[in-house]
Every structure is written in C-alpha cells, then in structure tokens.
Write a structure and sequence with these properties.
Number of domains: 1
Oligomer: single chain
Helix content: 25-40%
CATH architecture: 3-Layer(aba) Sandwich
Distance between the termini: 22 Å
Mean pLDDT: 92
Number of strands: 7
Shape: globular
Structural class: alpha/beta
CATH topology: Rossmann fold
Radius of gyration: 17 Å
Largest sheet: 7 strands, mixed
Low-confidence stretches: 9-24
Order of helices and strands: HEHEEHEHEEEHH
Length: about 280
Amino acid sequence: MAELLSKRWLITGVLTLLAGSLWAFQRQFREYPAIEYNDFPVPPDAQEKTEFAFARLMYPPAPTAMFDRAGPRWAEGMSSWTQDYPRADRHFLLALRRLTRIHVRSVEQPVNLDDGDDVYNWPWLYAVRPGEWQLTDAQAHKLRDYLLRGGFFMADDFWGTPEWAVFWDSMRRVFPDRQAVELENSNAIFHTIYDLDDRYQVPGAWGLYGRGYQNDGRVAHWKGIFDDKGRLMVAITQNSDLGDSWEWADSPEYPERYSALGIRIGVNYVTYALTH
C-alpha cells in the first residue's frame, strides 16, 4: 500500500508541473454524432479546466471499414472513430478519477490531426478500431512528429490478420523505420500503478455469447513501438476490446473480470504516458 501511495504522489507531482501549460492551451470540449450514442448525458462539469484530458483520435476510414456511416465527411462524426463513443470514454474517466489523484476532465476530446497544431496540446491519444483507418500522408507525418515530441498513442479494438494489415499500412507510413514488438511483462507500462503480469483477452460485449474474437484473432497481443531512448510511444492492444470493457463496466451482463482488467490497463497506460 505504501508503494502504491508513493506512486500516486509521484504522479501528482508530475501532473502539477504539466498543469500550467495544459490549462493555457486546452481547447473547449466538443462533441460529435456517434454511430452508437447520441443521447449520452454530458456531465455538469464538462467545461472544467483540468490537468489531463482524454483525447480520442478522429481519422478517415479505410474502404473496408464496417462501422463507417459518413464516408468523406468522417470529421463530422458517424464514422469508425466514434465506436463506443462517448460512453466508453466517460466511464473510463470516472474510473481514472476514482483510482488515481490525476485531475482529469470528465469528458473526452475528439482530436483531428488536420486541425492545425491542436494534437500537440494533448499528451494522450486513443484510437478505437484502427483496423478501419486510412491516414493520409500528412496525418501520418503529423502523428510521427507528435509521438517523437513526447506524445503517447494507444490503439485498441482491432482483430486478426486482415485488420492488422490495414492498421499497419498507416503505421508503416508513420514510422517506416520502426517495428511493433511484443511487450515483455517486465515493461514499466504494466507496473505504473497495477502489476499486470496476468493479462488475458478482453472480448467485446458482442462476444460474450458466442465466439469471443473476430477474424483469426484468437490470441491477445500487447505490442508497442519505442523511441530511440526506450520510451514506449505507441501501445497496441490487438485482439482485445478494451473500449467495450469501459463502455459496459456498469452493465450486470458484462463480466466484471473484463472491465477490471480493461480499466487497470487504461489507468497504467495513462500514468505511464504522463510520467515517461
């Protein structure tokens, strides 16, 4: 317990140093129509200026995208990047507030790489269903620069060989000189708050009463891309659906063990991103 409290106070100190600059540039909350939810309540403190905000990556869909409803108007919502949005984000942020001392905003921030320099204002970036994205060359260049400057990117909820191919087609243009590698249990990201040596596949709610994976994604992978100093820049949860584990954390039908792991992974990834 003492060690856990020590870690939390260390995180608080680091975030205090970050707070001034983030408050100065943090954009006002904005919301877009989503493919699942358009009536999820906005918390009353949504406009609060905080030390940390959860940024969700907006991206153009690939031709193979199953969940896109907007096509070339993806930047207006109703596209693959809105899967689980905003329910998953806000549930996770409730947990992050409860389990850490991070002063976190209660709502997410959609971030568009085409929107000037906005991405540089957000130290954490999350994308769902990146097996359905297709970054432009300009977006790939912007994401590369963001990551090399110290940003952190989490890619979640894509399955098997075909979706990996789509994901990596864009990531190859982000980092043509780097590879994704399997993360060792000893990596610091699995031990920032919780010790997560015992990880398992996290299915979406869609997989609870049948096959718990999609395509040929039978085995969960925890991969990453590192910078030249050994900092993990990109955390990849392939063949698991952590977004659903956040989204359905309040549902009696969704098993607690999946939400428990998904939330702990998210907490570790955020704290790693803010302290490394």
